[in-house]
Write a structure and sequence with these properties.
single chain, 367 residues, alpha/beta, FAD/NAD(P)-binding domain, four-stranded mixed β-sheet, 30% helix, 29% strand, globular, binds flavin-adenine dinucleotide
């Protein structure tokens, strides 16, 4: 009987594992992928869409893609995993029926959700940046406000890579907006090399953006934001890029999670002998550092998980995961930073390099 592998989530990690497995193992396995969406979203391209540029390769239909990979799609939301019975419960999106599927090996790859940290007003008065509907809503709000007055105030909360790039994108989409950042941590781009952080901060300040660093948001209203240090920052639009939490899913017996609900995996990216997890949904520490949640990490983890499933099928010892950053590309609208092992430069060609790189990444995932 062929080995049943079920992948939960058709994002970066899920699709990469699917593609690698088919290449590594061929027909020895039966591959199923479960996702409520019927398309794959290349999320970094949302920044291009937000800038009003053509977001090439943002969305790809899953059914033909998975047919090419020899995998079966179940368009459903997974609600629970019974680890003792090796069974996954899911709810179909079309008729809401509840079903189960059994597995020999499964991969949990359901990504992360935006967290509002239960701060008053965040749910009601801020915009997320996780889907193209979110992008359309943000742009619509800016157009509305521009019709009312010439220079709407746009505030981005959270100065991680997504927040910083979103600010660059907005400066292109609506140069007449006044832009601000609020960052609770004492520096922007936490976890990035300090030389890069300083350069980006300089570019942002020179662009006229106001930076409120080390100020945590206390409350958001229809007209602005109150922080731990400033009583009122006026805002016509607040884009919330501040934090991530794990989507709801029930695992029985339960496994270790970090305070935001992310799953703590072992060195082989396992939760148990039949269940792997990777990408944004996991919390992974190496050399006392929590490794970043980004597409690059998902690429590396997918490679290890695919190889370890192959080892399981063949009864071989597993390989540990090793994280190594290949560098960073940060696009800030008119300019940007290319930060690699031997150089870190600011160049207006960043957008062009990033475009080529994303093209290559898309090809790696989608073929
Ligand atoms: C605007 C934006 C810009 C970004 N830019 C960059 C960048 O420039 N560089 C970079 O490295 N990273 C970037 N990232 C981060 C990157 O997108 C994520 O790190 C990456 O997508 C994580 O991959 P993943 O497979 O873990 O999760 P995802 O790609 O989010 O995929 C998760 C999948 O699981 C599915 N799912 C969720 N819940 C369930 C469920 N219960 N049952 C079944 N399926 C489920 C979802 O529908 C989704 O398809 C950006 C993110 C955003 C939002």
């Amino acid at each position: 009987m062929s080995h049943r592998v079920v992948i939960i989530g058709a994002g970066f990690l899920g699709l990469l594992v699917t593609r690698r497995l088919r290449k590594l193992i061929g027909k020895e396995i039966e591959l199923t992928i479960i996702d409520p969406k019927d398309y794959f979203l290349f999320t970094p391209r949302l920044i291009d869409a937000l800038a009003g540029s053509h977001a090439r390769g943002l969305k790809r239909e899953l059914a033909p893609l998975l047919k090419k990979f020899g995998a079966h799609l179940i368009q459903s939301k997974v609600t629970a995993i019974d680890r003792n019975r090796q069974s996954i419960s899911y709810t179909a999106v079309d008729d809401s029926s509840a079903k189960t599927i059994e597995y020999d090996q499964a991969v949990l790859a359901i990504g992360a959700e935006t967290s509002d940290y239960q701060i008053p007003g965040v749910k009601e008065h801020t915009f997320h940046l996780k889907s193209f509907q979110d992008v359309a809503r943000i742009q619509e709000r800016i157009r509305q406000r521009m019709a009312e007055h010439s220079s709407p105030a746009c505030v981005i909360v959270g100065a991680g890579a997504t927040g910083v790039e979103a600010l660059g994108a907005l400066s292109r989409f609506a140069p007449q907006c006044s832009l601000s950042f609020i960052q609770g941590a004492p520096q922007i781009l936490p976890g990035f090399p300090l030389s890069l952080v300083r350069r980006v901060e300089k570019i942002l300040r020179a662009s006229g953006a106001q930076l409120f660093i080390g100020e945590s948001v206390q409350r958001v209203s229809a007209t602005g934001i109150q922080t731990s240090k400033t009583s009122h920052i006026s805002a016509d639009l607040v884009v919330w890029c501040a934090g991530l939490q794990a989507p709801t899913i029930n695992l029985a017996p339960s496994v270790e999670r970090d305070p935001s609900g992310f799953f703590v995996v072992d060195a082989y990216l396992k939760l148990d002998n039949h269940l792997f997890a990777g990408g944004d949904i996991v919390s992974y520490r190496e050399d006392n550092l929590t490794i970043p949640k980004n597409a690059q990490t998902s690429f590396l983890m997918a490679e290890t998980i695919a190889k370890n499933i192959l080892h399981r099928v063949r009864g071989e010892p597993l390989e540990p995961f090793r994280y190594s950053s290949k560098g960073n590309i940060l696009w800030l609208g008119k300019t940007g930073i290319l930060d690699f092992k031997f150089f870190c430069i600011q160049t207006r060609w960043t957008g062009f390099v990033r475009d080529l790189f994303y093209h290559f990444r898309s090809w790696q995932i989608l073929g």
